[in-house]
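One-letter codes give the sequence; each number marks local geometry. A record appears below:


***
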Amino acid sequence: MTLSPARLQRRVWDRRADTWEHEGAAGLGDVVDAVVRAASPRPGLTAVDLGCGSGQVTMRLAEAGAQVTAVDVSPEMIVRLQQNAESEELDGVVPVVSPIEEFGLETASVDLVVSNYALHHLRDADKRDLARSVFRWLRPGGRFVIGDMMFGRGLERRDRAIIRSKVAALARKGPGGWWRVVKNVTRFGFRIQERPVSIERWQEYLEEAGFSAVQGDAVLAEAAVVVGTKR
């Protein structure tokens, strides 16, 4: 039986739920910090965290007083999120199990939409559709903040530098690292599960959707944050 992309992602992240908080992507904490700074959470803000995982960004927004709808395809990740929120006695978190592509909100119903290290799993057409949907969901003045791995397939100088550094780091690990090089070339080259696009491409998607003051900034290595505002 062939799994749909959403069911495949659910299976992958259910398996990773126990270790993600401790073994997440390198430098993930720096990207979380950058996303939270760009989000500027405050009491009374209504927010959505798409691909929330166990709550690295959700918790920070809720601690600042925002009311957060936390969305993830993995039921196991949502369980971890609920446990984390309960341990911190945060009652401003509403967990939702849903693929990002299938999640929806009423028009002009929230102030902020964030996503951190999740949207590179979407197909490019779904990324573009999501930008349009988020624009509809936001109230005037609302922001869309994306933190993610952002690089293309080697056409730009930054892309090539990122790819070289990743290959070199893995190669230094010996035979196991070389196996990961082959696996990553397959995953990224054929866009299986992971489909990152460049900072510039994300900026295009947001501008096409109607966002203003779109800005993209590299955080470290492969990671970047793109922000757009609905005027």
Summary: The first strand starts at residue 46 and ends at 50. The mean pLDDT is 85. Strands lie at 46-50, 67-72, 93-97, 110-116, 138-149, 212-220, 223-229.
